[in-house]
Amino acid sequence: MQPIADEAALDAAFAAPRYLLLKHSPTCPISGSVRMEVEAFSGDHPDLPTGMIDVLDGRALAEAVAARTGIPHESPQVLLLEDGAVVWHENHWRVTAARLEAALADL
User: Sheet containing 50-54: which strands, arranged edge to edge?
Assistant: First the structure.
């Protein structure tokens, strides 16, 4: 999972044909669980670029995602992008590897 720490990295994520984006707080136990789910899913899908925004260090980036997508910011939150558009998103305990698998299969 690649860290997204600046606007250039965020632009690259939105420019990718398909991209999985995690907004994560390193101090939140729910975020920790969600990160493990995303990492498990990503391990099974190495061809799907996956990045993470640390919402504590990258608050402006997290808010930029909300502005670009129209989806209110939450943490933890996962967005599956296709050609820069959100095709699936979820937050908190609803993010699981199984739900990510189902979302990818629906594309």
Answer: 2-3, 50-54, 18-24, 77-82, 85-91
Backbone phi, psi, residue 106, to 5°: -75, -10
24-60 pLDDT per residue, tens = 999 999 999 999 999 999 999 999 999 999 999 999 9
Q: pTM of the entire structure?
A: 0.94
- Which pair of structure tokens corresponds to residue 31? 């975020």
Where helices occur in 45-96 by DSSP H, the ranges are: 59-69
Angstrom distances, CA of residue 71 to CA of 4, 78, 79: 18, 11, 9
CA pair distance 66, 59, nearest whole angstrom: 11
CA separation (Å) from 75 to 14, 47, 83, 105? Answer: 19, 25, 23, 24
57 vs 10: CA distance, rounded Å = 14
